[in-house]
Design brief:
Blueprint: H1 2-30, H2 35-41, E1 42-55, E2 58-73, E3 86-90, H3 101-128, H4 134-163, E4 166-167, E5 174-175, E6 182-194, E7 200-204, E8 208-211, E9 218-222, E10 245-253, E11 264-272, E12 289-292, E13 297-302, E14 305-307
Antiparallel strand pairs: 1-2, 1-6, 2-3, 3-9, 4-5, 6-7, 6-8, 10-11, 10-12, 12-13, 13-14
Helix pairs in contact: 3-4
């Protein structure tokens, strides 16, 4: 009987200890970020965003552009260290509409015709020019570069012709958008950050495929290895809200040549929930994290908005 009482007493103590440990863990997780944490949370997001025309399994790139913005390492759950290589940033957008695609394809076709004509003229010039001087060398270099661009454009047009039907009516051949054609955004990013030694590190992310949209929204990226790098800080969204009027700070990463802790600058401003912030545009970089002055994570910047 005595043994059962002792065992029962130990079980109660163990449960109480586990409960206290759990409460302590939640308190620690709910603590706001320090200034060092704020600096360690920011990262660069660089990559390439392409507008693609899709028909079944066939895909052709219409336009492509580079992206340079910021992001922030973020946990999936506030009560658990659950970053796993997740980065919050601003989603890619495009103002291109489906009705404009045939005209864009036609313009690419016209550009290819001009490039083909230019290539023939350059070949003729190089063959007929008898003196190999500095001008000849410069034109030969230009001709080689243009030839590569023409070949690349020809491949792109060939891909478009395979998945986008051509209308031969109205005295000419023009592209038209088929019923099965659809437009998507393909984004390929890599994330860079400064480690404890102030050295710039980088990791690639899984490709992101989204519907074509002109509306900006928060975007979660996943690194290839799904591991949070050593030395970075992952922010967390606590479940309780905040006041409408806040004093805020943002983290602006600066080039490697400039001397600053973790190559970052912390800038303060004001924010009214549902309204604009007043952070200087020079420091309010798209994708940069926003915190209250006490270190609570709020969201990320896009223009004069704070996306949550």
């Amino acid at each position: 009987m005595m043994l059962k009482r002792i065992t029962h007493h130990k079980i109660i103590i163990a449960i109480a200890l586990l409960f206290l440990i759990g409460i302590g863990w939640l308190i620690v997780r709910a603590m706001p970020a320090t200034e060092t944490d704020l600096r360690r949370s920011a990262c660069y997001v660089d990559g390439n965003v392409s507008i693609c025309l899709v028909n079944g399994k066939d895909t052709a790139v219409l336009t492509s552009d580079s992206v340079h913005q910021q992001g922030v390492w973020i946990n999936r759950h506030w009560w658990l260290a659950s970053c796993d290589g997740r980065v919050l940033t601003v989603s890619p957008t495009s103002s291109l509409r489906a009705a404009e695609v045939p005209a864009l394809c036609d313009s690419l076709s016209s550009l290819l015709n001009r490039k083909e004509t230019e290539r023939k003229e350059l070949i003729y010039y190089l063959r007929s020019h008898g003196v190999i001087d500095e001008g000849y060398t410069q034109i030969a270099t230009y001709a080689s570069r243009q030839s590569k661009m023409t070949d690349s454009l020809k491949i792109k047009l060939r891909e478009l012709q395979r998945i986008c039907p051509i209308d031969s009516s109205n005295n000419g051949k023009h592209f038209k958008l088929g019923k099965k054609n659809r437009l998507i955004l393909k984004a390929v990013y890599h994330v860079s950050w400064y480690n404890n030694s102030n050295k710039l590190k980088s990791v690639s992310c899984d490709p992101v495929y989204t519907a074509l949209t002109s509306k900006v929204a928060p975007l979660i990226l996943h690194t290839h290895r799904s591991i949070k790098p050593w030395g970075v800080y992952a922010v967390r969204n606590v479940p309780w809200g905040a006041t409408e009027h806040r004093k805020i700070v943002t983290v602006r990463l600066v080039p490697t040549e400039q001397s600053a802790p973790f190559h970052s600058i912390i800038v303060s401003g004001k924010y009214w929930q549902g309204h604009d912030h007043d952070l200087p545009r020079l420091f309010a970089v798209d994708g940069a994290p926003v915190f209250t002055k006490h270190g609570r994570f709020i969201g990320i910047i896009h223009g004069k908005e704070v996306l949550q």
